[in-house]
Task: structure prediction
Amino acid sequence: MNIDPSILNKENLEKLTRLKNIHAEKIVEEFINLCKPEKVTVITDAQEDIDYVRELAIKSGEERRLSMEGHTIHFDGYHDQARDKDNTRILVTPDMKTSEVINTKDRDEGLKEVYEIMDGSMKGKEALVRFFCLGPLNSRFSISALQITDSSYVAHSEDLLYRTGYEQFKKLKGSDDFFCFIHSAGELDVRGNTVNIDKRRIYIDVLGNRVLTVNNQYAGNSLGLKKLALRLAIFKANNEDWLTEHMFIMGTRPEGRDRITYFTGAFPSACGKTSTAMIPGQLIVGDDIAYLRTGDDGRAYTVNIEHGIFGIIEDVNPVDDPVIYKTLTTPRELIFSNILINDSNPYWLGMGRELPDEGDNYWGEWKKGDRDSSGKEILPAHKNARYTVRISELENADPRLNDPDGVPISGIIYGGRDSDTSVPVYQSFDWDHGVFVGATIESETTAATLGAAGVRKLSPMANLDFLVVPLGKYFTNHLKFGRSLAETPRVFATNYFLRENDRFLNEKVDKKVWIMWMEGRVHNEYDAIRTPIGLIPKHEDLQNLFRSIFNRDYSYSDYERQFSIRTGHFLEKLERVEKIYRKEQDMPDEFWQCHKMLKENLLAARDRAGVEIIPPSFFE
Result:
């Protein structure tokens, strides 16, 4: 390899050559010579190598130890606190079909630009060459990955989030069938944060199975294996015969029953996905990304490509999220990011206790009332602050987390932030309608993406930000996947955010009732009411669930307010959906058939009832 031996010494070179993969060697050679680090360290699966990364994160100042054993804090720059959608581009050639909603850039222009920015971006720093496995080891689901980064925080985070893959990489037998991620934080200031934010670039080269990302540290932009790998896998899956989805995987366990029923769920960021996957008494397989394939028995199976959680920490408290809260407040290897630190103790928004008036946070030395240069008040912790932890550290980790065969999916859940339209839970009529339900998720923007908050947006399958293929092709692949199954999962929609008079109609913990109703529907234990939008629960079934789970009553008046069909708002949603999707090419006929059916259902029901908001009793 043509790399200066003072940069890549003999020991690290041997680690690389032992893989017997000329493609990996060429990538390392190309980008080390381009980015020009002072030192290159190749990390294997050996524990001493993993420990080296963890200690380097402390030594470099990217992380700082806290008072509780195993806990560390990392701060991203003040202007590097969320995914940068504007500068995240899919590199395309003139002959590639895309959708208007996909942020693209000409491939030749994009590669030229990002190579110029990355030239010398690692000067004076140590580059870490990492190998991971996206999915369980020795599984037909899994994809190998190569990562080069100059951030020990990024590398440490990946150890918590992903399975080590150095030995797995050897099983490629020299193949180029792997994903590649190159990351540099770029020039750093005295606090260790990226200086050239204006030159932040996150370019996804789907034709090259690689991502090039520079001048950033926030994990949503820098951790190649997370949402950046999601995009590469979506491209791969939609050109093959499987699905890559922005979904949690959970195992439901009704009290008094000896059975586990697996669900996947797609919720836009900050819409309750992690807290749903972490409902007390249930099992978690994953909270973010799932690969779905058809099993030998004709059912849908899924694996979590990760084995850790990078979760939003705001509002995690002992009442609403007891499992996560306990995990965050007991000794274990855990990284906090962009929260408030006072006397080496962590504090975050909505944790259920009073926060100190001063400390260190993503701004620096902070005290209550501080404002930034634009006059905006600086919160004690960022609304998009995070925690990173291994799933195996959780008391509700599913024993099949690392099952190479995956787990069978009985139900799929779609949910968003919807304040005035959808009911708390309903079931689709069939698989095609379920795809439509997923394609028409709406949510309100949150602090998890840069830009204005509170704007309602369409978020198909909670995957819009990550799509790299035309929407028509993506939905068609979902429909085909359903056709390939001998038994399709039931499809449900949830909405935790219905409001009246600016107050939520449900408590956060009520989601356990909705999930238990879905679990019962999968096993044909509950009847349902057929409405214009889908199948909704009966009051008596929910009342029994509220009593058995929470020992509290669930009044019919509450049921009626929550499960009435708001025909006007649903029709308005269908208009919004049509306006957007009419611009898309090659939309499947099944989508428009569902759209027509729902519109006719709603208009007919409104005409019969003579009112806009129709109570459930009308349909019984």
